Amino acid sequence: METSTFVYDGDCAFCTQCADFIARRIPTGARVVPWQFADLDALGLTVAECEEAVQWVGADGVRAAGPDAIAKLLAGSGPIWRMAGAGLRFPPVRVAAWPVYRWVARNRHRLPGGTAACSLPQEARERLYGPAGRPTTEA
Hints:
The chain is of the alpha+beta class. It has one domain (about 5-130). It has helices at about 15-25, 40-45, 45-50, 65-75, 80-90, 90-105, 120-130, and strands at about 5-10, 30-35, 55, 65. Strands 2-1-3-4 form a four-stranded mixed sheet, with helices on one face. The chain starts with a strand and ends in a 10-residue tail after the last helix. About 25% of the residues are buried. One of its GO terms (molecular function) is protein-disulfide reductase activity. It holds the Pfam family DCC1-like. InterPro entries: DCC1-like.
């Protein structure tokens, strides 16, 4: 793998807004891609892992999830963002980061940009919106 990859939930409006923020504001050489359009096998990821948290697969094969993945993404960006990533890896912050991350993940449908679909399990989202997050049309 030549480029590191940051994988997020493309069916979630809140997650997509965060990914758009990364694309606009955080200079990174990583590929930022929704898991629904990523080659999970090539990345060594499972759907369950991607439903659980954002994922990082480094060009060196190192993997991380949740706030650890965010820290890895920030570590490869501009100076201010690198400092934020280092702060996220600082042990007392890292210990608090996972519970905060899980709270955000459970409540993402309530956060700015979130929608009701963000709170649904993947199976229910696919039933309602199709595998690519688009509404299904019944014939």
